[in-house]
Amino acid sequence: MALPDNSSGVPEDLSFPEIIELNVGGQVYITRYSTLTSVPDSLLWEMFSQKSPKGLARDTKGRFFVDRDGFLFRYILDYMRDQQLVLPDHFPERGRLQREAEYFNLPELVKLLAPKISKQNSLGDEGCQSDPEESSPSADTARNLGAAAAACSSLVSGGDGKRSGFITIGYRGSYTLGRDSQTDAKFRRVARIMVCGKTSLAKEVFGETLNESRDPDRPPERYTSRYYLKFTFLEQAFDKLADAGFHMVACNSTGTCAFAHDQTDDKIWTSYTEYVFYRE
């Protein structure tokens, strides 16, 4: 009598177990059958509400295999446990997570992610441009375009003209340490103050005092570490950041002895210092 073909070596169960092991993109998850079927009409509900697991893909160890992002699936699974969305602060992958929610057919999760996604997407070029065919709009059209641009800007900035984000200020300085540890009065010689962060935030805070020659034509929502200021007074940079609503959250500094003077005991030290500012 011919035996059924089972080349994988994995026994074919007639029903799903209560505890199910999943391999999602190489990441292993263990959950309950009731969790995977908790959202009706979702992709996982369709997969595991069948009468038999026969036909579902498995890996070499018999775990059910899903070819999706294994790291983001943790948030999909968390949502299916209690239908709530909890993400870490400053979560950078909302767009990718929304795509995963769409793939797993979780419309309520898509809605929870959609507001911030649409806000981020509005920062790009789409949705804030005028019709390219209207090369010479009338006065009414120009006013309408201006109102649309203002509305788009309000959406981008959250309505008060200010967005949250980080700006890092860095500088290299030098000082002379002489005999008896007496430091030169001109101990802080700042050659250039560097600015790191999102281009739009840097331009908002520093305006015309921001030198963009080292990184020209950088899109507003891209990040840069090559901008620097046209002045060399740290206090002036701090004043501008404070006026824009930023406050310092971290700083660090390093110092090294560059060289010693041949005829004196004076030593020239160089230092690099960074200040990190954040606005809620």
Q: What layout of secondary structure does this protein have?
A:
Elements: E1 19-24, E2 27-32, H1 33-36, H2 43-48, E3 64-66, H3 73-82, H4 94-103, H5 107-121, H6 139-157, E4 165-177, E5 193-198, H7 199-206, E6 210-211, E7 223-229, H8 234-243, E8 247-260, E9 267-279
Parallel strand pairs: 1-3
Antiparallel strand pairs: 1-2, 4-5, 4-9, 5-7, 6-7, 8-9
Helix pairs in contact: 4-5
Description:
With 280 residues, this protein is of the alpha+beta class. Helices cover 29% and strands 25% of the residues. The chain contains eight helices and nine strands. Helix 4 packs antiparallel against helix 5 (107-121). The longest helix is centred in the middle third of the chain and has 19 residues, at 139-157. The chain is elongated. Mean pLDDT is 77; it is low at 7-11, 116-137 and 148-159.
Quick overview:
It is built from 8 helices and 9 strands.
Question: What is the number of E strands?
Answer: 9
Overall mean pLDDT: 77
**What composes the largest sheet?**
6 strands, antiparallel
Order the strands across the largest sheet as they lie in space: 6-7-5-4-9-8
Secondary structure tally, helices = 8
Overall radius of gyration: 29 Å
Order of helices and strands: EEHHEHHHHEEHEEHEE
Distance between the termini: 73 Å
Structural class: alpha+beta
Shape: elongated
Range of helix content: 25-40%
Strand proportion: 25-35%
Given as residue ranges, the uncertain stretches (5+ residues, pLDDT < 50) are: 7-11, 116-137, 148-159
